[in-house]
């Protein structure tokens, strides 16, 4: 089968940073779906995993943690899916990625695609939808059915992949959304997704929030640098407020800054369930099933912004470079095989 992967971890400008490969088709485990991959998306995690390091992969490592495709075969213990089903999923970072014509995914991590979307638009959703849903509704404790309507959430990085889904899910749950975005393109995008207030993260946030009549926010969803925003988040969070972060801190965080407010900080990593094979792994299928329903009902929409053509090493290198530029808005997708 065709696949794209790495032997060596090289700068994205290097022609061998991602390679076109021919690999044997994998055989499913008892709970696996064997999926014919039709479209994939690229996330910052792909760039992080591929970043230069002194290691060689043999056999080569296949990246990719967003896919949409058609089930070709199922393992002996699969109960929910059958061949011919259209599915979308993010999968597990502990297994080979989805940048391959044929991919294996545990059925508990996959869900039926939104009926109203094609493969490319569906592939843009899984990883960011899971991160946004788990962070907003599980870590921050927001009720998805609207019982927290009127509360304010500050989304740091409101036009990125995860931020784009946080803005939409928060609006669907009735929250007032304050989103950071610095460029006109990203501001227009965040506004189109439903952001109520836009602030520029290149300037101090407190004066901008106060100009909008906001002294403190009950909820903060940080999709950017945890340590860079730590003091600002500690200042802006309301007493007994809650903060969630998704970017690993490179320096120690001073939790004492939250003590006087009895504020809560939590990490969100959507790979936790698959990494540890938790008893509730199937919650990710349930989340993606619900997201698909919200898409089909028109409550949220795909965040696909750029289509980089067919799935190939050259096109994936271009998509990785776009992510590394820091200028990406929404999600980047590739579709089909040459």
From TrEMBL:
Keywords: Metal-binding, NADP, Oxidoreductase, Zinc. This is Zinc-type alcohol dehydrogenase-like protein. The lineage of its organism: Bacteria, Pseudomonadati, Myxococcota, Polyangia, Polyangiales. Belongs to the zinc-containing alcohol dehydrogenase family. Quinone oxidoreductase subfamily. The keyword Zinc applies. The keyword Chloroplast does not apply. InterPro entries: ADH-like_C, ADH-like_N, ADH_Zn_typ-1, ER, GroES-like_sf, NAD(P)-bd_dom_sf, Zinc-ADH_QOR/CCCR. It holds the Pfam family ADH_zinc_N. GO terms for molecular function: oxidoreductase activity; zinc ion binding. Residues 16-334 form the Enoyl reductase (ER) domain. NCBIfam families: adh_fam_1.
């Amino acid at each position: 089968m065709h696949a794209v992967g790495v032997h060596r971890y090289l700068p994205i400008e290097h022609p061998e940073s991602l390679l076109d490969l021919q690999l044997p088709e994998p055989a499913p485990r008892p709970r696996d779906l064997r999926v014919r991959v039709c479209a994939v998306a690229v996330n910052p995690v792909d760039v992080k995993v591929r970043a230069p390091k002194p290691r060689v992969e043999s056999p080569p490592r296949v990246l990719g943690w967003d896919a949409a495709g058609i089930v070709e075969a199922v393992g002996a213990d699969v109960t929910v899916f059958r061949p011919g089903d259209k599915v979308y999923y993010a999968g597990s970072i502990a297994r080979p990625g989805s940048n391959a014509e044929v991919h294996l995914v545990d059925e508990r991590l996959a869900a039926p695609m939104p009926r109203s979307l094609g493969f490319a638009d569906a592939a843009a959703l899984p990883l960011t939808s899971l991160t946004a849903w788990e962070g907003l509704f599980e870590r921050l404790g927001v009720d998805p059915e609207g019982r927290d309507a009127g509360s304010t959430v500050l989304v740091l990085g409101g036009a990125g992949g995860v931020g784009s889904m946080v803005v939409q899910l928060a609006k669907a749950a009735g929250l007032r959304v304050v989103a950071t975005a610095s460029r006109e393109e990203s501001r227009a995008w965040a506004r189109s997704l439903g952001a109520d207030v836009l602030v520029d993260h290149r300037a101090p946030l407190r004066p901008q929030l106060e100009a909008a009549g906001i002294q403190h926010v009950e909820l903060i969803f940080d999709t950017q640098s945890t340590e860079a925003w730590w003091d600002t988040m500690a200042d802006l969070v309301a007493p007994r407020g809650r903060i969630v972060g998704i970017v690993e801190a490179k320096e120690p965080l001073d939790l004492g800054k939250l003590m006087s407010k009895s504020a809560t900080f939590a990490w969100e990593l959507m790979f936790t369930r698959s990494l540890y094979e938790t008893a509730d792994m199937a919650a990710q299928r349930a989340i993606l099933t619900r997201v698909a329903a919200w898409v089909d009902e028109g409550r949220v929409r795909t965040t696909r912004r750029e289509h980089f053509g067919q799935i190939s090493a050259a096109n994936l290198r271009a998509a990785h470079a776009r992510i590394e530029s820091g200028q990406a808005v929404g999600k980047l997708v590739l579709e089909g095989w040459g």
